[in-house]
Amino acid sequence: MEGDTKTCPECAETVQRDARICRFCRHDFRVTADPAAENRKLARWLILPALAVLVWVGLHKGGNHAEAPKVAGTNICKGWNGQQVLDQARDAGIIRNIRRSSIGTINGAFVEVITARWAMVSTKIHVGIAMAAYCQVAAADGIGVAMVKGSLEEDLGSVVDGNWMR
After folding, report:
1. How far apart are CA 82 and CA 140, in angstroms?
2. Residue 127: helix, strand or coil by DSSP?
3. For the segment 77-111, what is each residue's pLDDT rounded down to a tens digit?
4. pLDDT tens digits along 113-158
5. How far apart are CA 118 and CA 25, in angstroms?
6. Rounded to whole angstroms, what are the CA distances from 129 to 67, 95, 133?
7. C-alpha–C-alpha distance, residues 61 and 57, integer Å
8. Beta strand extents in 43-144 (DSSP E only)
9. From CA 122, how far away is CA 106, in angstroms rounded?
10. What is the H or E stretch that residue 99 is in?
11. Longest Cα pair distance anywhere in the chain, in angstroms?
12. What is the pTM (predicted TM-score) of this model?
């Protein structure tokens, strides 16, 4: 931090020292770190995949339903370097953090992105980032969840069992 400017902790852009909200990513400098708030954020990340799994199970329980078409089959992750995609997105300043978690037997990835940077890239890149995160956690049978959240806590999309959803 030099003189009349400071660096935003969310997007690393330089803003005026007296700024209360970052003009790039809308980070609120007035909010101090609150461990309880962090726990609430983490709880939201864990609840959403659980709800997605429950809805999926409810829709597919029993009966002979035709399987929904998938954006990616279980083979999408074979021979594809998803880690390279995630590394490039992180280097480009799109991805802020990736966490992995599991609920029961379902593995999940939670991708936090900088909303302003996410908005500047195409839907094809959005799907590629989400699919790369999905491939990092998906089981051999294609079961897994990858969720993308923005720096403003908005849901930006997800991949559930190989299906991209916005």
Report:
1. 15
2. helix
3. 777 777 888 888 888 888 988 888 877 777 788 89
4. 988 888 888 888 888 888 888 888 877 777 888 889 988 888 898 8
5. 11
6. 25, 9, 6
7. 6
8. 95-103, 106-113
9. 29
10. strand 95-103
11. 67
12. 0.55
